[in-house]
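Exam revision sheet. Question 4 asks you to relate a sequence to its structure. Input first:
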Amino acid sequence: MADSAAAPFDPRALAAKLHGLRRSRNQAPTAGFSLPADLRHAMDAQNFLAADEAIESNAWKVTVSPDGQAVTAPLHPYVQADSGAQIPWQRGTKFEAEIAVRLGRDLPIRREGSYSRADIVDAIDAVHLGAELLASAVEESGKISFLLFLADRLGNSGYVLGPRVPKLAVDTASGTPLKVTFNGQPLYDAPAQHPKGDVLTWLLDYANDGMRPNTSLKAGALVTTGTLCGAIELVTPGEIEIAFGGSTYLRLALV
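Answer key, structure tokens:
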């Protein structure tokens, strides 16, 4: 007798499991999940997860998949604060200092031609120093299944938007002196280094993705652009201070 067909993937069920793990600050191994088979399934699950978490902020992270597909996920909890912000800590939490940009006008999908980097810069209204926290509900994060990691909002567990910096920072961030301390101890003290050198690389890739939602990259959206210091694990709660360029500071607490 032939085996029955495998049950269809249920993005709502995956989202519910991810939400339960996030709410209890726990993790499960990749093998314990029903895996999305493609980008559409992963994004369906991510959208259900965002609904379960009642995410309303217009703040996003962008990156690319291992095969070069531009992807995004909402940032939550999202806090706008120059100092004193608090984000929940859990085992496995990692930290990234980043540059974030707020769009001053829409970047609609282009059916003919592509956006240039200059187009992206022209659409940016403000540039900020920011801090992203990462704590995936998946034990291996995206090491085994990137699509599962994408469904889990790319591992985001919080974002703190700090003070504005000159718009020129989108050109000069890589190489700018950056110091990060945790409970007064240095974690990073070196020139800022973006994985792609240019902090706008992934935003440009996403802007030119013809498959992104029509509602994406609207005026007012806040987009964070990728780490400047790598992903630093924080093994206990505590206080973080970021000094960017020797004159811009952001302080937050993991509680």
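Marking note for examiners. The CA atoms of residues 108 and 214 lie 7 Å apart.
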